[in-house]
Amino acid sequence: MPYGDGMSARARSEERRAEIVGAALEVIAERGYRGASLAAVAERVGLTQQGLLHHFPTKEALLVAVLRDRDRWDAVPGTPWRTELLAALVEYNAMRPAIVRTFSALLGESVTEGHPARGYFTERYTRVRESTAAVLRTEYGDRLPNGLTPERAAPLLVAVMDGLQYQWLLDPESVDMPGAFRDFLRLLGEPPA
Fold first, then answer.
1. CA–CA separation, 109 vs 98, rounded Å?
2. Which residue, among 68, 66, 42, has the nearest Cα to 54 in the 3D structure?
3. DSSP state, 173?
4. Average pLDDT over every residue of 12-18
């Protein structure tokens, strides 16, 4: 096989994998992880289940790919995080309910023993709390105006972000997710000039 054909096949395979991950995201958003089947994902992309297994050998492997893609979409490499960027992320999430729904469904299911995403979310929350504390430390120093340390305030800020997502998903007409998050940031107090 000529070199160019191999690259083309590889590119097609990556494109197909991305299509499968997108379909898995939709199916999980609709049915949750436990209710999602490889057959349903395969059907959405016009593959047999065996064809899908060629790209992702297990349902767990597909789940990990979905979660990694979601994190890749949210990553802002090389950019110093500030609370304004967190507020912008909340606004961005308000424009992509399917992604937020999938994340929320997987997060809720992952608290059960034996769920394949439990370790992923446990590690992710450790990283998110650490990075949020760093954001708060950069903006406020060692103490926020309310007296909390960044490490004590970080889990609260993360809880507000995730809790607002659940409320917004359940009643988007009544919950202004970006506005409520900005209100919470005002409760933290103004950072020093």
1. 16
2. 42
3. T
4. 88
Centre a 10 Å sphere on the Cβ of residue 93 and count the other Cβ atoms it contains: 20
Tokens of 114: 């034996």
Q: How far apart are CA 124 and CA 9, in angstroms?
A: 33
Could you write out the DSSP letters of every residue in 99-154?
Answer: HHHHHHHHHHHHTSTT-TTHHHHHHHHHHHHHHHHHHHHHHHTTS-TTS--HHHHH
Distance CA 61, CA 116 (A): 9
* Residue owning tokens 């590889």: 10
Report the alpha-carbon distance of residue 84 to residue 34 in Å, rounded: 36
pTM of the model: 0.74
For the ranges 12-26, 73-87, 149-163, 169-183, which has the lowest average pLDDT? Answer: 73-87
